[in-house]
Amino acid sequence: MQVVPWERLAKIFARTHKQGEHVAIVGQTGSGKSVLGLSLCQIIGKRKGKDGRPSRVVVFATKPRDDTVTAVGWPVVKKWPPSYGQEHCVIWPKGGDPETMAQRQRAVFRPLMRVIFHEGGQTLYIDEASYFEENLPNGLGLAPTMNQYWTSARSLKLTLIAGTQRPRHVTRSMWSEPSWLFIFAPDDEDDLRRVAEMSGARRQVLEVAPELGGHEFLCIHRPRGGAKKLYVSKVGT
Question: Would you say domain 2-234 falls under CATH 3.40.50.300?
Fold first, then answer.
């Protein structure tokens, strides 16, 4: 296990992450989970696609306001596909009545996820996977679609980066399929044990995760056919 500054880990991710490899992030509110996820999106976005244009990265925004998403500076697009020059973009349905917000967001995200799945060759970022999986009216009811992404999108060169506050209420595939797992300090002991059991590095997670400080995380790189590598770093440092 290595303790590395963020700048070095960002270079490691840029060099070793392959399009189609998924990323799962678990961290409580305020941990730095969203900042990390969007930073990984920006790293992938610097690559070139096969056509020589920037790699396609799409952010699904669900909060009425989200300063972390706004700070990235990517355009909010209203139709699909995005225009030339909008290879990095945000899909952000309007807020409105909170009682019907999930239904409106589902009407936008569900068909678009199906289109992106069939197009392939892109990166999709979702900040809170459990919200996408939970049934209406509290969530979007897209658990089958999320599971399909985790289990089948790799061959389509489609990368899913998704976070969650807790390791529960999400498909088990979110932990078994990603090649990259980022763990912030757990909220409670049950969450810690659950993440450790599904991480493929149980002993290290149980030892390291409880000792993580503010905005620090444990990164587990689990390449298929290769040895696991573990890093400890800190968002933006």
Answer: yes
